Amino acid sequence: MTKRNILSLLGALFALAIAAPTALAQLRIDITSGVTDPVPIAVVKFAPDASAAATFDFAEIIQQDLERSGRFRLLARERMSASPSRADAVVVGDWKALGTDYVLVGRSAPAPAGQSVVDFELLNVLNGQRLLSERITVPTSTARNGAHRISDRVYEKILGVPGAFATRIAYVSVDGAPPNQRYQMIVADSDGEGARAILESRQPLMSPSWSPDGESLAYVSFEARASAIYVQRVRSGERRRVSARRGINGAPAWSPDGGKLALTLSGSGGNLDIYVLELASQALTRLTEDPGIDTEPVWAPDGASIYFTSDRSGGPQIYRAVPTPGDRPRRITFTGSYNARPRISPDGTQLAYVTLEGGGFKIAIQDLANGNGRLLSKGRFDESPGFAPNGALLIYASRERGQGVLATVSADGLITQRLKSDSGEVREPAWGPFLR
Amino acid sequence: MKKYLPLAVVALAVVFAAGCASKRAKTDDAAGGDTMSSTGATTSPDDSASASGVESAGSVGGDMAGGVGPSGELGNRRIIYFAYDSDEIRAEDQALIAAHAQWLSKNPGGRVRLEGHTDERGTREYNIGLGERRAQAVRRALALQGGADLQPPTISFGEERPAVVGETEDAFAQNRRVELVYGN
After folding, report:
1. Which residue, of A130, A159, A188, is where some domain finishes?
2. Which residue of B has its CA nearest to A224?
3. What pLDDT is stored for residue A54 in this prediction?
4. Does this model's pTM top 0.90?
5. Per DSSP, what are the bridge partners of residue A407?
6. How high is the mean pLDDT of chain A?
7. Residue A401: its pLDDT value, please?
8. Domain stops at, among A159, A180, A207
9. Does B122 lie at the interface with A, CB-CB under 8 angstroms?
């Protein structure tokens, strides 16, 4: 065997060692509906830096981001007659003739090894105004994230709402048939790329919740054949068991200040109530005390109250509690027999939840000020809604032909997408915060 | 059947796991007998808590504790089924409960665990609550027939460990259950 053969064999073995345990469900995004009047925009291929060997195609990723948002109509590259890389080289009349309103141009600049520096400019071709002229610097290894950040800027400049492309999602992936199922806790970019398992188990994994700084996930794991709550740092993988009390340890939800977890405990008597655990001191405070099931807590963004599911009045409904002694939780949902798993929009004005409607479980959204609600989805098994950090989108779990898939819907209900796994099923998505 | 791997082997496994996939943890393997451990994610030494959790993971055989517990036609039945959205034990299951209660009160060393499950309809954490309610209902029924000392531990898996996968009424009915799991 030649040295080269041995090397390639070793390489293959190493690749196997890495690839086999990390064989992941890859998500694929399909837009299932969009707005009727998307904004026409052209993203011109960025000019490479002459000194660089290979250049990452930033424009391609930005184009995909904007297209998938459903708010933009992208001009195909092959229809572009020129490839300017600076705003002052853009002949606005030519682009106007192609029916586009905005042009994004950019170029890579000389950068130290391992870094990418990109200058980009956004031009309104209708009035010739330059809307953006910015530079980003990213490690070349995370160039994709740099492209998402440019997409965020373009999205915000044109639509007035920050983009949430440069964010991450967590979800649970399950494969195999009972009783031999394999559960994985996955973290991926918001477009499903870069997925990796941060935890794998033969026992159920549930209820991922992001820390407000985006560095950690809290979740439920049954790995010790009983439920326990863990906090795991996403980057290092280091983790800590924060609650393994008798009975149920469930539904962790991070406080907006990052110092506390709201969670569900039952004790050995089996009565589920909401508690607040201070992470540094491990001090535990009881929030609810009711013989019914109280669970699925979530904090209001101002940290002043906690919304949760309770069946104290019969079927599950959503309540709101303030941590003041003697204050009784107030009921929030009144329409329908089943309303559960609340989530609050980042601005604190909207409540998303799961509702039973026409024999199916669907995602609903309710204006907290006036109580007006409407359905956002039409599946039979839709659940686990959560807001993107910009509040413009929600992600939730759905089923398609017996398989668990993820879906997104814009808060106005107009744009829907499906994130489908190529293997196994995916569930319980949680959208992470903006990253600094 | 408990089997603990020698610490060195566990340590090696951790090093190996850390080498291959330093950013991810693998927990137990309850399906196999040996609890191949583990904690690739846990690079910090004070995280032994999760490692010990992993060791105990293999100790209850879950679906394979067939040799222990009552026998006979009723004693061999280990699953109690429930109606939709109900934790009421059906009249026809009272004889089954009685047989298990009788055996447990005669065998104080015998251990049973009550695992509550739901079908997949409804939200996951709320279903953990419903599964617990079913397990508690069986626990009360056992105590009623076998004496107040009979307080077996309960665990709820909600909809997370279905017996069968499917969206049919039949699949739902098979998943709404409490399993009596004997072992030590």
Report:
1. A159
2. B57
3. 67
4. no
5. A396, A418
6. 91
7. 86
8. A159
9. yes
